[in-house]
Design goal:
488 residues; alpha/beta; Methyltransferase, Cobalt-precorrin-4 Transmethylase, Domain 2; Rossmann fold; six-stranded mixed sheet; five-stranded parallel sheet; 23 strands
Length: 488
């Protein structure tokens, strides 16, 4: 029984370490704070317990002694407990206090570092913490370092005289007072400063100012830097979708993969798998599949299930795929598609089958219980026999950390919600989630967009093709059309 103090990093899930990934994947319980990217909780097993222990915008939260007690309790009852902290647990994350509490109770613990904001966040903003000729030292401090309600004089006097780059955590609301204190203790009025909010995220913003003109308050969560490299404004490529915040409403794992794809292009992606797969047994399906002239697969999910439901060596018929994603999933099982619909729509699949299936052949559909009737109708019109195997259904489900998304979007905003199907639009509509102001629905196809417009009452955009590349192109165009005043 071990409690693992794990750093989630200061940005999206792509910044998590391999060790942290491994621990999350086998966690029995996760205790998480409000600065993590909520998608990270989807890495844990479905049987995992989740405990929110973070504070956001003044909402009620656990006090540190209560968190220590919770970790102790879980550490005695669970095999693998992950304490997931934004940034690094030991850099103003109170991880040391939690470790001491665990040691006091004789509970083993480990430490997994995370990318902290003063390194990753500043670097991604083009502010290297050190730079030859500008800063040969880096000082990390907390803006909450107070004594009797006032800044600790000895600390800030030493910081003002120390030189190098100063990085202040949790100093957004108190920076005006700190700046005056630093100046009074010898830091030059013209000292360059920069505040990086949500460093490492696609929506990160940077405000630059001289020490003497410091704002009274800044937008958090931020790291405020002064002196040293604070005035060095490098310009790393942020990607074509930087600044965009996009929720992806698709089943898992497609929702996760799409969100991470968008992050690779600079956006902030959020995975919302609002429908979960539930397998449906079908009597005699192995004989039906083995005797088929054609097997039709209408999703990557069906292709993945096929290998676990029948002996692939017994299949003699041709295989039709609804598109490249399904073909790729099929290839991972060692099978190839004899025909692939382009684009990935029911209409295109129906057209493919109408041109390939011969009269008298037996065509077996292995698919979602709620699949479109168009491909079946096309096969019947050819005089072939149709067998429908409803291999699975999609049932409503919520990702862990559900409440974190809307509270996060209250702070960052949301530009688009991508819906993978009409069923997912309905799942969103019944989930209790509301479309944030300014967010645009995006449909994976025309029926999906029509459902979004009908249920949400908002004009929806439609992807030219049901591919990630098409989604990226649509979002890039959306970014160009955003009002300039919304951009940082």
């Amino acid at each position: 029984m071990t409690v693992h103090l794990v750093g989630a990093g200061c940005a999206g899930p792509r910044w998590i370490t391999l060790e942290a990934l491994d621990l999350l994947r086998r966690a029995d319980a996760v205790v998480y704070d409000s600065l993590i990217h909520p998608d990270l909780l989807q890495l844990a097993p479905r049987t995992c317990e989740f405990h929110a222990a973070g504070k956001r915008k003044g909402r009620a939260s656990l006090k540190q002694p209560e968190i220590n007690a919770l970790l102790t309790e879980l550490g005695k009852a669970k095999e693998t407990v992950v304490r997931l902290k934004g940034g690094d647990p030991f850099v103003f994350g109170r991880g040391g206090e939690e470790a001491l509490a665990l040691e006091k109770e004789g509970i083993p613990w480990t430490y997994t570092p995370g990318i902290t904001a003063a390194i990753g966040g500043l670097g991604r903003a083009g502010i290297p913490p050190t730079h030859r000729g500008l800063a040969d030292s880096l000082t990390l401090a907390t803006g909450h370092s107070e004594q009797n309600g006032a800044p600790r004089e000895n600390l800030w006097k030493a910081v003002a005289e120390g030189g190098g780059t100063l990085a202040v955590y949790m100093g957004a609301s108190s920076w005006g007072n700190l700046a005056r204190f630093l100046e009074a203790n010898g830091m030059a009025p013209e000292t360059p400063c920069a505040a990086v909010t949500r460093g490492g995220w696609g929506c990160a913003s940077t405000v630059r100012f001289p020490l003497s003109c410091s704002p009274s308050a800044l937008r958090g969560p931020a790291v405020v830097t002064a002196g040293g490299t604070a005035g060095l404004a490098l310009s790393p490529d942020r990607g074509p979708l930087a600044e965009l915040k996009v929720a992806v409403v698709r089943p898992a794992p497609e929702s996760w993969d799409t969100a991470r794809f968008l992050e690779s292009l600079g956006a902030d992606g959020f995975s919302l798998p609002l429908l979960a797969e539930e397998e449906l047994p079908f009597p005699g399906e192995e004989d039906l599949l083995a005797g088929a002239d054609w097997i039709v697969l209408t999703s990557p999910r069906g292709a993945a299930l096929l290998s676990g439901r029948t002996d692939l060596r017994t299949l003699r018929g041709k295989i039709a795929s609804i598109g490249p994603g399904t073909t790729a999933a099929l290839a991972r099982t060692g099978l190839r598609a004899d025909g692939e619909a382009r684009p990935s729509t029911s209409e295109a699949l129906a057209s493919l089958l109408a041109g390939r299936v011969q009269p008298g052949e037996r065509v077996v559909f292995f698919r979602n219980e709620a699949g479109s009737p168009l491909p079946e109708d096309a096969v019947r019109a050819r005089g072939a026999a149709v067998v429908n195997i409803p291999a699975y259904r999609m049932v409503p489900g919520r990702p862990p950390g559900w409440d974190s998304y809307e509270s996060l979007w209250e702070e960052t905003g949301l530009d688009a919600v991508v819906f993978g199907s009409a069923a997912l639009v309905r799942a969103w509509n019944t989930s209790g989630l509301s479309m944030p102001e300014g967010a645009v629905p995006v449909g994976w196809g025309t029926p999906c967009a029509a459902a979004a417009e009908g249920l949400l009452g908002l004009k929806a955009l439609v992807m030219a093709e049901p591919t990630l590349e098409s989604l990226a192109a649509l979002l890039a165009d959306l970014k160009k059309r955003k009002p300039t005043e919304e951009k940082e």
